[in-house]
Amino acid sequence: MIEKQFYGSPNYGETPETDEKVMVFILKTDDPVNVLAAPNQPDPETADQSVYGITEIQAYTMNKKLNLSKYLNKKVILQGTLMAAISGHHYTKILMEVKQIDR
Fold it and tell me: In 3-state terms, the chain is what percent helix, strand and coil (to 5)?
């Protein structure tokens, strides 16, 4: 797990001198992984897409008892829910809401 800086609002890197600098937790995978979308999604326009060859996953948690910074620069196993990036605050193609961390 590492922490990486990205540009945030208002322009997400188009104006670096005025854009917010955002620190994000990133899980770097040992090997590239594929994240497959659920089959038979009802609306192809809004359906999740499969993503292949992922090596970085933005990690976050809603659980106040989990302190991701405690695991920086350590090898970890994360359990949680994957989702595709859908907003400017999503800095990798795939995100994980972390529910549990093991070392």
Answer: 5, 45, 50
Q: What is the pLDDT of residues 15-60, one digit of tens each?
A: 989 899 999 999 999 999 999 988 888 887 777 789 999 999 999 9
Confidence (pLDDT) at 80: 97
pTM of the shown model: 0.87
pLDDT value of position 32: 98
Q: How would you write 47-88 as a 3-class SS string?
A: CCCCEEEEEEEEEECCCCCCCHHHHCCCCCEEEEEEEECCCC
Element (H, E) at 95: strand 94-102
Dihedral class, residue 50 (left if φ above 0, else alpha if ψ from -120 to 50, else beta): beta
Phi, psi values for residue 68, rounded to 5°? -60, -30
Structure tokens at 17: 């001198």
> How far does the chain reach from its first CA to its final CA, in angstroms?
11
